[in-house]
Every structure is written in structure tokens, then in C-alpha cells.
Amino acid sequence: MKLNPNDNLVIMAGGVGSRFWPMSTTECPKQFIDVFGTGRTFIQMTYDRFRGIIAPENVWVVTSQRYADIVAEQLPDIPRGNILLEPCRRNTAPCIAYVSWRIKAKNPKANLVITPSDHLVTDVIEFQRVISSALNFTAETDAIVTLGMNPTRPETGYGYIQADLQEPSLRNREIFRVDSFKEKPDYQTAVKYLKSKEFFWNSGIFIWNVGTIVNSLRIYEPEVSRIFEDLLPVYGTDKEQAAIDKHFPECPSISIDYAVMERADEIFVFPADFGWSDVGTWGSLHTLAEKDAQGNNVIGTDVKLYETRDCVVHVTEEKRVVVQGLEGYIVAEKDNTLLICKLEEEQRIKEFSAE
Amino acid sequence: MKLNPNDNLVIMAGGVGSRFWPMSTTECPKQFIDVFGTGRTFIQMTYDRFRGIIAPENVWVVTSQRYADIVAEQLPDIPRGNILLEPCRRNTAPCIAYVSWRIKAKNPKANLVITPSDHLVTDVIEFQRVISSALNFTAETDAIVTLGMNPTRPETGYGYIQADLQEPSLRNREIFRVDSFKEKPDYQTAVKYLKSKEFFWNSGIFIWNVGTIVNSLRIYEPEVSRIFEDLLPVYGTDKEQAAIDKHFPECPSISIDYAVMERADEIFVFPADFGWSDVGTWGSLHTLAEKDAQGNNVIGTDVKLYETRDCVVHVTEEKRVVVQGLEGYIVAEKDNTLLICKLEEEQRIKEFSAE
Hints:
Helix content of chain A: 25-40%
Oligomer: homodimer
Distance between the termini of chain A: 51 Å
């Protein structure tokens, strides 16, 4: 398959994954960890699933300065200059604004997929079909496309996208206009969403051409836009990082959903089904990962379990562990930190991990 | 108080303390660990409790060659030459034979206390009174004296000494002849022992003069005796270790109880009550050690417990630990090994720790 030189991939990798403490730490957050014990980290799996549809030189990563070396080490095939470094965290809108103008400076005809770096996709064939179809759509339109996941349960941990399923796009019959974006619902609401069939999980994966996002940002976030537009002369030069370090912090902290999605008109959703999860919690990892006959998901090379069921045991390679008599617990050990906690109490991990 | 130059202390420190795994390992067994977090290890506490009744130059330690440096580091006040090194493990009889002839070569009038290195005594004042009284007794007699602990519960984890309480010794009214030694009993038998009032826990602490033990060994273990008697010319010389390395392994593996106690005639017991425990298990440690309001005994400087009760949490100093929702567990971490196990299953630790 010949790759379209306009197609670019943007991997957002600035998160800190605090719900996976202590495996995920600010030194090495979730996206850089091999959570499933497959030999590939989340960001590597993210990169891998675009293999064959995006050229490595068109893959961009936006991350924090402290993770520059980890990204370069884990994704050696992408140009070092494609790793864009934020001097501070400002949520997704400034991140996307920066990379969009940066790519536009190189190729004004660029067509972009924006993806989080720490999600799981199990059906990569279907994923690639959906991405390619969406890229074809945005190459020809000024549409902002989100990928909506067919919900399989009344999940309260995700945001939802409500689609207008009456009128598919004429250019792509799988793509629909968005009626509204919904915050994480309570359980009753999630059940309603599930039944109505017109709500989809917001995957955080977006497809658009660079002109579309740049114009949208100009309209809805003119101050942010001005910052990155003013830097057009320095992109790709050795003055880029210093200029970003100086001006990036001037941006407000604002999500792309709030800045653009919930305001713009030409918003579409591509409902899809490719085995997606944000693997946001130890519990979701336990659900998704391979388990032994007793329901234990074990990462570690010297772990012995006795009378232990439905546990997640994640320890570093060299660690020797014996667990006896636990049911429904997380046992996680990394560097110098050990967590033992009931899976059902995992929402308190942020509290536990506070220094 | 003037110290009697004939009084010697022998600390047996060759054990491996496998029931305290992973805190106790073959690299650093229980006797060298500060299990209570007091700043003093078991062997140091053992040494400390003889302070003022035995001169440091009369303190001897018999241990394995691999622990020579640990002993010298933990007991810097005793002469390095008093640390006797076994090239292999042969139980207590060869250990005691070696040190007895070694001491006899230096002082044929020596009077000895033999003690394990990994027990706890809480009432050191009473302990010193008992030891001094027993030493006075054996200085004047050929008696073999054992210390019997007043049992406070039907313990099945200790051996028992049955005393003939009808006839106290004329020289010391607290000392009685031994009727019999009993192996660790089952629970029903232990209850009977407790009721009868004539059974005492075998503390493994012995007092005798060096002539008495040497003669007993000559009678009951002539082969072992010959080995160490033949080495009389080399004791205290730079040929001692090589000779021991060569001949010590020729000894059979045999306990002093079996070799002498259960065979000799002049065996006495000194029933006593000085808050003794062999701290043989995590459970006994949990019983003895300081606990917080939720019944948790914690050693570690950065341990946070949530909804956790009746647990023993022992981790190395620099370890950060969060435990949520455990009741009645051991959480122990040392070097690169983590154990999580119900306290009630601790008898299986040997199984768990097998490589």
C-alpha cells in the first residue's frame, strides 16, 4: 500500500496516569509502561497500530520535556524533531494547537489523526480500516471527526458522544453529525445511553485536516492560536524549543473538547467497534488482560500465588513475590514502592499515592 | 559488681531462621536482624542482657563462616578470636563440643552459659539473677543446668522439661532434677503439661562448668570429643581455623539435647520467669511486638495503612508501602523479595520460600 504523504499521526503523550500508581509514576507514566507484559509499552502499541497507514516520518509525539528521552528510546523510528516538548501541562487544546501549526508549517495539506498514547485497541485490522476511511473523509472535507466507540456496558468512566443517526454523511455512510457531547454520566444515565443506541464512548481519537483545526482554533481560541501562529518562522529551526518554552506557558489550560468540539459546527462521529479501552484503572486492566485459571493477572517473572483469586499482581522483573490468601486485590510494586489494595477501592489510589 | 573471670558466655549463632523469611535469609538470618525496630538485633540483645555479669573478653560466638563479619560488626566489643567459625552445620552438639574445648584450652576452670542468639527476654533483671544463681551452682557442682520457662499457655511449638519438684537441690532451692525431656507436644498433651505444673518450656539455655560438659561429651559422644580434644594444641593459634575446617565436617549432625541431656544423670532444671520467647514465628512476633490501635505491628519508615488490622508489616527502611484492606496478614519485604501471607498460614513459609 502506498502511503499518502499528507497523512500524519499525532500521539499525545503528556499524561501522568496517576490511577496506575505505583506502576505509573511521574518519572515513567502509564504510556511508557508495558502493562500487559507483551514487550511493548502503550505508546509503542499506539505507534504499532498505525504501521502501514502512516509513514514514520509523519508521526509526531507531543509530550513533556522530561519524557523526551523515553519517547526517543521507545519510538526510535520517528525523527527526533517530531518529538514536540511542552514545558508545562496545559491540557489538550494548546498541545494540539502547537503540533497543528508545527505540521502546517511543514505541509499545509496535512491530514491528521490525533490519538492518546495510553489506550488499548484489540482489533487493529478494523482500526486501520476506520482510520483510513476517516482520513479519506477529512482529506476532502472540513469536517472534525471523532471516533465513537459502540458501548458494550453502561460505563460511567467515559464521556459519551450523541450522534444524529438519521442522516449519514453523503461522502461516507459510516459518519454522522454529532448532536452533543456528554460528560461521564451516572449509572442510570449510562443505562439510558446504552439502550438508546445513539450514544458512543468518546475515544479521544480525532481526525481532521490541518486547515480545519487551525481555522477552528483561530475562531474559538484566538489567543492560543496567535501564540502558535506567531511562531511560524521558528518551527523546525534551532530556535523552536526556546520560543515554545517562553510562550507555551502563556496558554490557558483547556481541553480540545471544551475549546473546539463542543463549540464548532462541522463535528462528526464515526461509530466504530475495534475492541477499544482506555485501560484507565487497575480494574479495567484486570478485565482486559490475560488471566490464569484463578482469575489472576500476573506480570512478573518470579511470582508465586497460593489460594489467591481475581488479583492483579504487577511487579518489576527481578522481584520475587509470594502471595497467599488474597482475593480481589491489587499487588503492585515498582522502584521502591509497594501497593496492596482491594480492587474495589482503586479509586482511592490517588489518595494513597499522595506523598 | 566484680566479674568472675571464670564465667564465660557462649552465643550459638549458626541458625538460618527460615520461618522468618523473607526478613530472615541465609545471607542475613534472624539473629542478625532488628526484628523489633529497636535499633538492636537479636544477637545484640542477647549480648546486652549479659552485660555486667560476663566480661566481653569471655563472650564467645559460634557461627557459620559466612557470618563472621556480621558478628564482628554487630558485637565489636568481643575479641575477634572469640568468634568461632563452623565450616558446615552439624547441629548443637559439635558446636558446643568445639567451643567447650576451645575455652577449656584457655581456662580449665571456666564456667559456661550457653544461649541461643535469637530469643527474646523482657525481664533482664530477673534473667541476670537467674543466670548468676545458676553459675554459682555450676561453679561448685558437676551439674548440667537447663533453664525451664514457666509455661503461660499450652504451647505446642516448644519442647518441655519435666521437673521432679519434690526435691530441690540442697545447694540451690530453685533448682530441681529433671525427670524427662519432652518433644513438642500436641495440643491435648500441652494442656495436660500446663495443668500439671511440673512441665517447663525448654529455653535452650544451659549452664555448666567446662569440665562437666567435656566429661559428658567424652562419655556420650566419644568420637566427637576425640576430634576436638585432638585439636587442643592448635586452639588459639593461626592453625586453628584450618584444623577446624578439616575436622569439623567429620562430626555427625546431632543436637546437644539428644547427645547429652537425654542421656546424662546430673541434669537439673531451673524454673524461671523472665518474659522469654523464642520469637520463632511471625505470629509470636506479632504477639510480642508493639502494635498500633488496630493491632498492627509495623516496621518501616514509610508505611501507610488503611482499613488494615492485626497485620505484621515489616519492610526495609527506604521502602514506601501502602496497604489497604488487609486483616491478619504478614506483609514482609526485604532485598528483592515480597511475602504477603495470612498469619494463620505462616507455618507454610518454608514451603513458600523454597526456590
